[in-house]
Amino acid sequence: LVIGDAHCQPHVPNHRFEWLGRLLTDIQPDVVVDIGDWWDMESLNTFDRPGSKSYEGRKYWYDIESGIDAQERVQYQLDTYNRGKKKKYKPRLVRTLGNHDGGRILRALEDNPKFESMMGLHDLMSAEFGWEEIPYKEVVVIDGVAYSHSYPSGVMGRPIGGENPARSLLLRQYHTAIAGHNHLLDYCERNDATGRRIQAMFAGCYFHHELEWAGPRVNRMYARGLLLLNNVHEGQFDFEWLGMDRVRAKYG
């Protein structure tokens, strides 16, 4: 199961993570990938100037706590399901950090080294909740499928995007790959000389609220839900899209 960008924010309820936990115990995927930006980290937004209306009231620890609360809600569902069972459901949990969580924290530390003793990636508590943490911009390969929050479009390092992002991802990586970052659901596949499928996909997002910085028109473009990969083997998979309304109706 791939969880698209979740963008936890202090003012947004985290009920969707209870739904996620119930879904996990129901369908029991063996691997769960958080594709990054579980945290929105508004407090570290460098586009808002200190003292501006959009900046005031943002606190680092409020941002951190919103994402930890989400992890707790998922874990509670797993623990409740496993209680008293001999055969426990324990999926592999993998987190590829994104530009909002991993990227913003590291950039803040680079700009303000004096904060190194006060903040860091350890605040996310990934390990404490059983998540393997993959650094921002790095890739993890599982059963032949590459996962990363985003992939570079060229030597300048800008994330792949554009009108057909999945096609661009496939043509640049030449490898089956899953990405997040743009909040869209997009898919492309080709066959190599042996007939083997090479697939590329963007995993949408897992939040129901609107992101203020994106604006209403862009928010309406987002694909909200969860991406389920089936029969994953040697870089090939079948997929199913679980829309947010469907997830809420069954597990809410």
Outline the secondary-structure elements.
Layout: E1 2-3, H1 15-27, E2 31-34, H2 60-82, E3 92-96, H3 99-111, E4 131-134, E5 140-142, E6 145-147, H4 165-173, E7 177-179, E8 185-191, E9 197-203, H5 216-219, E10 225-233, E11 236-243, H6 244-251
Parallel strand pairs: 1-2, 2-3, 3-4, 6-7, 7-9
Antiparallel strand pairs: 1-10, 5-6, 8-9, 10-11
Give a quick rundown of the structure.
The chain has helices at residues 15-27, 60-82, 99-111, 165-173, 216-219, 244-251; strands at residues 2-3, 31-34, 92-96, 131-134, 140-142, 145-147, 177-179, 185-191, 197-203, 225-233, 236-243. It has 252 residues and is of the alpha/beta class.
Give the count of structural domains: 1
Strand content: 15-25%
Task: Note the gap between the termini.
Answer: 18 Å
CATH top level label: Alpha Beta
Secondary-structure-based class equals alpha/beta
Mean pLDDT across all residues, rounded?
93
CATH topology annotation: Purple Acid Phosphatase, chain A, domain 2
Shape label:
globular
What level of helicity do the residues show?
25-40%
Q: What value does the Rg take, in angstroms?
A: 18 Å
| Element-level helix/strand string | EHEHEHEEEHEEEHEEH
The total of beta strands comes to: 11
Number of helices: 6
Q: What is the second-level CATH architecture?
A: 4-Layer Sandwich
Main sheet makeup: 6 strands, mixed
Low-confidence stretches: 48-57
Protein name: Calcineurin-like phosphoesterase domain-containing protein
Organism: marine sediment metagenome
InterPro entries: Metallo-depent_PP-like (IPR029052)
